[in-house]
Amino acid sequence: MRRARIVGTGSYLPARVVTNDEFAQRLDTSDAWIRERTGIRERHIADDGQNASDLALEASREALAAAGLAASRLELIVVATSTPDYIFPSTACLLQAKLGAAGCAAFDVQAVCSGFVYALATADNFIRSGMARNALVVGAEVFSRILDWNDRATCVLFGDGAGAVVLAADERPGIHASVLRADGRHAGILSVPGNICGGRVCGSPFLQMQGNQVFKFAVRVLEEVAHETLAAAGMSLADVDWLIPHQANVRILEATAKKLGLARERLVVTVDRHANTSAASVPLALDEYVRAGRIRAGHNVMLQGVGGGFTWGATLVTM
Ligand code: ACO
Prior knowledge:
Peroxisomal Thiolase, Chain A, domain 1, globular, five-stranded mixed β-sheet, 319 residues, binds acetyl coenzyme *A, 28% strand
């Protein structure tokens, strides 16, 4: 049976680092409050001239180099983003042009912080069905563009970045199983409730969130979807070498690991240095651990997303 394997990873973080103390200089907050409530110490913020496709390009080049694949041979590009360069064309099409990979299918997936897991499952199905022999899957975000920088309850939580993987068809898995879920009844607890109409922004262009509700929802569904994905893959938690949940808040990550009975050493944490990079957080964390030699060939890794929509999901993959 035809399956999809991850054959290369890459990531990119903008050069500018913003520490908690920078926020404390102009807002009623502190490094101690942000670290205690979220685990976040710092985040990277894109320059004004850098868009999601620019971040995606750097991460994609790294992933393609790691895979030993020329961009011109790509058969599919899927970009997960909620902060696209434009309303259209898609960031995936802009990335395709920058990579010089004209001709292959390219589209965006919009599932907010679950976007990368949604995109990975989509590309996996293209490969399983024979529609593509390889795929570039990217999570890229400039959340700094949709934050109210005077709202201490939201602006300290997020950062910018991109992560990418190259998938290739193989007889061995690879991706064992994915479970994707959504419940649109909870759209209101995390949203950017605005759009463009008549040349103006209608509604709000800024991220709004009911933090407590998001927190409780995330911990519950991350536990549930871990069990569902293990069942779909015919595996148990003991088979999982690493858990990479969406990096929103270290307390969400630790509560999820605890509920699952997973040892802290098997939990991947990068939120302390990246903050929440939405669809980019999971591939960024994956690439960091791969390059550090911690996640190695043969390891079983569970990737989990949860975010606006509400959406959530998980993928179980052997590296
Ligand atoms: N600095 C200081 N005080 C703050 C800050 C800040 N940066 N932000 C909020 N506060 C204040 C609030 O105004 C409130 O003050 P009040 O009691 O005078 O009204 C107080 O701190 C407590 O606020 P809560 O919202 O109850 O604090 P909580 O302990 O819930 O922590 C947090 C807030 C960190 C946002 C938490 O709810 C959380 O992490 N939720 C998950 C949200 C998340 O991770 N979102 C990311 C996007 S969603 C996703 O990716 C899945």
